[in-house]
Each structure stands twice: as structure tokens, then as C-alpha cells.
Amino acid sequence: MIHTPAIVTFANQKGGTGKTTLCVTFANYLVTKGVRTVVVDCDFQRSIAKCRNADIRKYGEEHAPYDVAACGIDDRDAVNAVMEKLHNDPSIDVALIDTPGSLKAAGLVPLFVNSDVIAVPFHYDLVTVPSTAAFLLFLERLRKAAAGRMDARLFIIPNLHDGRVGKRSELALWKSARDTFSNHGFVTEKIPRRADMERFSTMAALDMQGSIVAPAFENIYTEIFGTSEPIRQTRLSGIQLTENAFPKYGKKKAGTGKETVK
């Protein structure tokens, strides 16, 4: 178990691995478990913050199940202040942070050092695998340099997986990569490439997203809370009840909250 509030950061130096989509779908997964959640958008593109604003215009702010805020990742002092605030906020259980596909931003080092979980999405191809390996080595060097101040658990998520793709030699390379990555952290179940994962909503899970991501997300959830069961039972608003796609957890659902994009 991890002491809450827990900070979960989605990161990889390689862009296009699905960090933003998985960050939002994990937030939607958490609210079905009764988890009080906040999302902090540190990506340069502000995709989550923009999506939340669009969702408010479509559904209304009263349906927002968790807060969404934004933080400039280039400002190291601002990142440190946000991390301290999140770690000491008793009103939340989990804070999710989306990051850019880059290691150049000044705030990334304190962000990684102060995270409780770092979720690293990647997919099996000849460009992403070596780039992800380099990122995992960077985190290992950072952990050593932090001299005991960095205790983040790593979850490495094979995302956008297409089982139809890959020559025999490539499949052997993918297996070797999985074995190597497991030396750095826990490699989750594969999340398959599906059309349902090509869009996301900050109000509720869409289509079949729940069944697609739940096997991978349950590993992270169990690490944080020590159980796969919901931590509390509350009610979702109407839009989550009609569009939520986590049937496995449908009997115990999470509550609503106001949202502010700063």
C-alpha cells in the first residue's frame, strides 16, 4: 500500500505512447472505485484541460467527477509547490499527472522524485522500445542521484498493442524487452489498440474503454490501496451512469465534484 494522497505520474520521453489518454481513463477508472481524484495537466499541449472545458460546455460543470488543473512544467518552483500541496491535501486520495514527451522541462526532475507511482506507457516497435529503455535508465540514474529521496514504484504499460503486427524476430525482441523492463518495474497486461481508445472524456469513460484498460489499471490500483475492491461507495451523476463503461465495478461508483482549470 501507498500512503495517500498518492501521486501517479504518466511519463515517457517518447511522445505518442498514449500518456494523456491513459491518464484520463485511469481517472475515470478511479472514480468508479470511490477514489477522490484530481488530474494535473503538465503537458505543453494542455489536452486534458482543453477536453475538460469542452466537456463542461457539452454536459455542464455539475457532472464533473474530479478536478482538473494545469501546471507549467518549465517552472521548477511551481512544480515543487504543486507537489507539496498535493501530498498534503486530505481531500484527495490520488493525484494523476500528465507530462510532455520530453526530458527538457525543468520541473520534470522534482516531479519524478516526488511521485509515488510512475506509469510508463509504451508500445512495441523498433523506435519506442529503445526510447523507453533509455527513459527507464534515466529514472534509475535519477533514483541513485536522489540518494533515498525517490521511492516511486514503476508500472510499465504496453499500450496500443496490435497482436497482428510483428515478424518472428520482432516478437522475440518484444519478449526480450518485456523481460528487461521487468527489471525496472512491474510490466502490466497489454492494452490493445482499439478505436474506443482514440478519444476520451473527462466526465465519464466512453464505449468499451473500461473493459480495455481495467486489467492493466487494477495492478496500479491494488499497489496503492492494497485491494482491488472499491474503497468507498458513492453515487455518480446522470452522465456517468449513462456513459460509464466499467460494468465490472458498476455496483460501487464514485461521487461528483467541481472542477477548476487554472
Automatic annotation (TrEMBL):
InterPro entries for this protein: CobQ/CobB/MinD/ParA_Nub-bd_dom, DNA_Partitioning_ATPase, P-loop_NTPase
Domain CobQ/CobB/MinD/ParA nucleotide binding positions: 8-197
Positions in coiled-coil regions: none
Superkingdom field: Bacteria
Protein's UniProt name: ParA family protein
